[in-house]
């Protein structure tokens, strides 16, 4: 039902209610049974135990648990406990993340008003908002939260704050008149009040036409319930990697066991060796190391004024190819600012942004002061006809009241007109702004008891009431050509996306009537204010840096097309042939139709929550990784559906914050750029330790496989394999996660989300380094075994030490995509300390006699160490001169 098109009498007939008596108790009971309570419904809550158990459904986790059980049965308790702890920690993290995500709908419920004033049986009552039914008559006053969707039937200067719902940056004026236009979106339905919005000014009465899930807020809740969260690129890559590793490791370990049994080794020993190799091949520490790397990135992001709610979010930003950003407050200051004044037939330009009182007035290149004709008077009138005030907090001005009124006060301050100037005038009468009049007037009296009227309002309303206008030489009669020049000035400002406000005055005597119809006629036109919400200074270079990084920035806003286009052009978002789409055009398109043109579209204006969701889906279907920003409830479904949702810390609602992955503490687009840079670095670090761990694991498996093929004794015993897996692989891999970015990460294009973990030569490097590590370990084993065939423990100690040393040298090779010589090894002192720690533990295992029987080691000579260091460095040195990036 299009309630906004119906007049009040027709609505009363349809809902069987009268606005002066309200519903009866019997009607209320019937309607509650028919429509239910006025609450937002959520999905059925899943049991916490089921959510927790769901964290262990991953195939890699199940294999690790099986390996843990076998290791425990075979007496390898240290390894079993380590794996179990890692699996449990990751399960707990996943459980709490999922619990937090489900709270977003609960926050939506809290946005409905707790209490409401309704008319029933001819008497006003205060009831819980959940008891409201369709047809109830509701009274609204300033400060109230609208309890349901209402058709306004009475309005007295009524304004509501709908930015959280529709994206509008300014309060919306409401009226009671039917609107004949068809297919209006909620932000254009000026005779409707919507659940969850705030009354910021005036009062009114409305008839409830929608409750619970049948409200606009309910539609958003429904979108959130039905929107599926896609796995992040990192989650997809790790799942893919896990399957590959499990498949390869099981085949290779089975091969090693079978060959060993065929060659006469005991089944028990070969089975134990096979389990050890399986555990070594599957990097069970990988999820923990990824978590540590992401957590370190989170700490760095906090210092950059961003809070990461989901660890994978930082990495996902690193491969973002599209940023869909809100305009107001994110790209702009969210502070209305007077940028231009039209007075005496001239355009004066005003410097300074936001609520900073520093600024100057210029006529062309010439700076003007308070002596410029009529300028000081015009600024004074704007200050007098005003209901806002300026507050100072921590040395900065804040506006208490309407942002537009605040802009006029700041403009006066820039000319040196202080609040004390206004105190010389006493307000005799005020005619407040309302949606029908579109103007505000005050009658003021100065120290000399001289009275005059000041009127401000929409130019199209004020201009017909002006009989005179001021020029440099005084007041003159308004002629048609004068009105034409003023209208040209209005169009000039409108084309620059400025909101225009006209100022007029009228001298009065004590005998003049103060009746409104006569009072606001025969005005003298003084001038026009042109104001805009200015872009943030740091946003333009941030957008340019994103463009160089191959990331497209798209503006999505509830504001008008002209405003959106002007801001987009100012920030260099909109290229010469770029498209701008309105919400009404999106209404006529399917997702597939939008998909065909979305790569050429850079600005979306006058959009609804459904539009935002459609935009995100269209980009995703084009293969993009989408980052979506927002602050209002209307943004929450799109934020949840995007690859990475970003909410505003200052202006954002709780619903949006709970649905998002990243919260910007400063509401600043430039912070997103910093997050992208951090995300790219984190992914590179993840690739580094995947390269290190897998090359090491390949070396461990191959040395055993080659020994079996050559009918040699086992070069490594199971406990040595497990020691390498737990000690040598762990600490250096974690230290790689603290590495700084190599080169300029923001000069490269985003990764293809379909790109595998082993892309760009990583798989080649893992196999070649792993092959060499296995080969040199086997060679040193064979040399030591030939030298002393009666002492197998000596040969195994040499092989064990060579394997560890080749890995510890190889970790420095992993820091660069170029070569081991490309970076200073002391840039990452965490890595240096990790390697020294592993080396110290190795020496303890080799030389401390109580541990020698446990780890099957014996003391080595200086000659042995020379052999080990030469062969251990070969895998890295052989590729050290290949400086070409693969």
Automatic annotation (TrEMBL):
* Keyword Ion transport carried by entry: yes
> Membrane topology type, per the record?
Multi-pass membrane protein
> What is the residue range of the signal peptide feature?
none
Q: Organism's domain of life?
A: Bacteria
Major subcellular location class: membrane
Domain (Cation-transporting P-type ATPase N-terminal) spans: 2-76
Alphabetically list the UniProt keywords.
ATP-binding, Ion transport, Magnesium, Membrane, Nucleotide-binding, Phosphoprotein, Translocase, Transmembrane, Transmembrane helix, Transport
Report TM segments: 56-74, 80-97, 244-262, 268-296, 689-714, 720-741, 762-785, 791-809, 830-848, 860-881
Q: Where in the cell is it found?
A: Membrane
Query: Which residues fall in a coiled-coil region?
Result: none
Entries under PROSITE patterns matching the protein: ATPASE_E1_E2
Q: Which family does it belong to?
A: Belongs to the cation transport ATPase (P-type) (TC 3.A.3) family. Type IIA subfamily.
> What is this protein's record name?
Calcium-translocating P-type ATPase, SERCA-type
| Species for this entry | Virgibacillus sediminis
């Amino acid at each position: 039902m299009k309630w906004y098109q119906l007049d009040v009498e027709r609505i009363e007939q349809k809902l069987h209610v009268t606005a002066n008596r309200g519903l009866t108790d019997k009607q209320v009971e019937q309607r509650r049974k028919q429509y239910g309570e006025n609450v937002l419904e959520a999905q059925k809550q899943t049991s916490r135990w089921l959510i927790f158990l769901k964290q262990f459904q991953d195939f890699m986790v199940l294999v690790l648990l099986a390996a843990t059980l076998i290791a425990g049965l075979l007496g390898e308790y240290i390894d079993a406990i380590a794996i179990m702890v890692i699996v449990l920690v990751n399960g707990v993290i996943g459980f709490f993340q999922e619990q937090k995500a489900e709270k977003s709908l609960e926050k939506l419920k809290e946005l409905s008003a707790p209490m409401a004033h309704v008319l029933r049986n001819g008497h006003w009552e205060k009831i819980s908002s959940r008891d409201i039914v369709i047809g109830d008559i509701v009274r609204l006053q300033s400060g109230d939260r609208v309890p349901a969707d209402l058709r306004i039937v009475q309005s007295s200067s009524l304004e509501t704050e709908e930015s959280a719902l529709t994206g509008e940056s300014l309060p919306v004026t409401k009226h009671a008149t039917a609107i004949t236009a068809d297919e209006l979106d909620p932000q254009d339905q000026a005779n409707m009040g919507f659940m969850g919005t705030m009354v910021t000014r005036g009062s009114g009465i409305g008839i409830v036409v929608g409750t619970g899930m049948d409200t606009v807020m309910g539609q958003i809740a429904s979108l959130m319930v039905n929107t599926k969260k896609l796995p992040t690129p990192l989650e997809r890559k790790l799942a893919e990697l896990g399957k590959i590793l499990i498949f390869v490791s099981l085949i290779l370990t089975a091969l090693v066991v079978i060959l060993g049994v065929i060659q006469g080794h005991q089944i028990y020993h070969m089975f134990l060796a096979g389990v050890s190799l399986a555990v070594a091949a599957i990097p069970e520490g990988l999820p923990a190391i990824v978590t540590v790397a992401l957590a370190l990135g989170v700490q760095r992001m906090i210092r950059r004024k961003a809070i990461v709610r989901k660890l994978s979010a930082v990495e996902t930003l690193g491969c973002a190819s599209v940023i869909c950003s809100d305009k107001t407050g994110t790209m702009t200051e969210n502070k209305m600012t007077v940028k231009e004044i039209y007075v005496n037939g001239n355009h004066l330009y005003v410097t300074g942004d936001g609520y900073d009182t520093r600024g100057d007035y210029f006529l062309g290149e010439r700076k003007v002061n308070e002596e410029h004709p009529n300028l000081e008077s015009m600024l004074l009138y704007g200050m007098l006809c005003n209901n806002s005030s300026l507050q100072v907090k921590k040395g900065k001005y804040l506006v208490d009241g309407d942002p537009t009124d605040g802009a006029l006060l700041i403009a006066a301050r820039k000319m040196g007109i202080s609040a004390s100037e206004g105190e010389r005038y006493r307000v005799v009468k005020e005619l407040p702004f309302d949606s029908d009049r579109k103007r505000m007037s005050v009658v003021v009296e100065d120290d000399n008891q001289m009275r005059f009227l000041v009127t401000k309002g929409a130019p199209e309303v004020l201009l017909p009431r002006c009989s005179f206008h001021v020029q440099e030489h005084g007041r003159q009669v308004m002629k048609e050509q004068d009105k034409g020049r003023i209208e040209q000035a209005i169009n000039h400002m409108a084309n620059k996306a400025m909101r225009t406000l006209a100022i007029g005055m009228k001298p009065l005597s004590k005998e003049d009537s103060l009746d409104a119809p006569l009072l606001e006629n025969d005005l003298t036109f003084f001038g026009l204010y042109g104001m805009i919400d200015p872009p943030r200074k740091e946003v333009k270079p941030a957008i340019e840096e994103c463009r160089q990084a191959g990331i497209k920035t798209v503006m999505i806003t509830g504001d008008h097309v002209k405003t959106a286009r002007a801001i987009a052009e100012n920030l260099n978002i909109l290229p010469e042939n770029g498209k701008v789409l309105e919400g009404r055009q999106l209404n006529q398109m399917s997702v597939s139709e939008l998909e065909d043109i979305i790569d050429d579209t850079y600005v979306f204006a006058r959009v609804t929550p459904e539009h935002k969701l459609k935009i995100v889906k269209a980009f995703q279907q084009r293969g993009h990784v989408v980052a979506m920003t927002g602050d209002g409830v209307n943004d929450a479904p799109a934020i949840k559906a995007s690859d990475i949702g970003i909410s505003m810390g200052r202006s954002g609602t709780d619903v949006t914050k709970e649905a998002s992955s990243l919260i910007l503490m400063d509401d600043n687009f430039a912070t997103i750029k910093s997050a992208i840079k951090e995300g790219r670095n984190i992914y590179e670090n993840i690739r580094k330790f995947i390269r290190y761990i897998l090359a090491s694991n390949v070396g461990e498996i191959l040395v055993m496989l080659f020994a079996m093929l050559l009918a040699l004794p086992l070069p490594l015993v199971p406990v040595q394999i497990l020691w390498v897996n737990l000690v040598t692989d762990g600490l250096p891999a974690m230290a790689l996660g603290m590495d700084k970015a190599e080169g300029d990460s923001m000069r490269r294009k985003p990764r293809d989300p379909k790109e595998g973990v082993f892309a760009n030569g990583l798989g080649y490097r893992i196999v070649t380094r792993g092959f060499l590590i296995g080969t040199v370990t086997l060679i040193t084993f064979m040399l030591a075994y030939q030298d002393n065939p009666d002492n197998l423990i000596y040969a195994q100690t040499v092989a064990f030490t060579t394997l560890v040393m080749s890995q510890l040298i190889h970790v420095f090779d992993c820091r660069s995509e170029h070569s081991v010589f490309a970076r200073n090894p002391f840039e990452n002192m965490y890595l240096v300390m990790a390697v020294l720690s592993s080396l110290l533990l190795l020496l303890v295992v080799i030389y401390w006699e109580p541990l020698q029987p446990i780890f099957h080691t014996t003391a080595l000579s200086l000659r042995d160490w020379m052999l080990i260091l030469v062969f251990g460095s070969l895998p890295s040195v052989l590729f050290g001169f290949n400086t070409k990036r693969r």
